[in-house]
Amino acid sequence: SRLNIAKKAHEKASQAERVSQGQLKITLRDRINHARNQVEETKHQLDEYKESYPNKPLDRKNHLLNSKLENFFNAYETACIMYFKENLNKRDFREEYREEIRDLVEAETFRRFFEPTTSRYQSMIRVYKEWEEKG
Questions:
Q1: Tens digit of pLDDT for each residue in 19-60?
Q2: Three-state DSSP class for 9?
Q3: CA dihedral 119, 79, 86, 106 (to 10 degrees)
């Protein structure tokens, strides 16, 4: 019957949407992990450089670290944009990312990246505020 056909089509569409969300979730997590690893690797290289050359300027090395941090934050920003576009399951996203985003936004070390009026990471700030207001 037509009702069965419509029901099956709806089930297949729902399944395809879940698969798509799952793939997007994996892609976003991979991007965040890759960016995090690059930050850690760059911090390690910077520490080694400081030990080996204590009197040399660090401007170029610090610039490289800032670039890696921006890539890291951009990965989270993209994930938050997907959250607001409802490309992801909001409850699952909150469970997975709440602590990470809170830690980043609240970290004294990163405060300059998350000043509400000047930040390039407005979606991260918006997600953070939304979740903190809900408790």
A1: 788 898 999 999 999 999 999 999 999 999 999 999 998 888
A2: helix
A3: -50
